[in-house]
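Quick sanity check, NAD(P)H-dependent oxidoreductase:
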Amino acid sequence: MERYILAISGSLRARSFNQSLLEAVAAMQQGTDLPVLFSTSIGELPHFNPDINTEQLTPAPVKAFRNQVQDAAAVVVCTPEYAFGMPGVLKNALDWLVSSGEFTNKPTITISGSPLVTGGDKAHASLLTTLKVIGASIPEGGSISIPAVTKKIGEDGRLHDAETLEQLQSLLKLVTAASF
């Protein structure tokens, strides 16, 4: 099986800024021993319900998502900030992983991007708390908040800001080293 970095976007928008950030990460990893695979849409996951969180009743989309996380050599999670928090759809996806263990000791990097000058720092803090609770291994320096993201992504939907590209490259070096 090919090793990969699993990219999870906390936004459901087709052309979200967070998707653009993850596409930049994927472009950086093309041709390497650790390409990026985009996760199945977390929007397809049903609302978390402990009553169906059993081996027999777990919905197929949840099983597929869990398998992607389990099989990944590393994970990158990118979140927007909605009302000072991570989107409900991302929290829901992570809730499905609390008791199943796929994130335990998984090398993970995190990114938040926001049009605000705070870079989505409140959502990012919430994301980091949740990932730590489920056992993700986030290397020191393995998280960045990207402020004013709208000014860094062109009309073509691509990230053009050199400083942000360098920051993403640094994150990738950290998670790549941690995954071997």
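Posting the structure with no commentary besides this: The radius of gyration is 15 Å.
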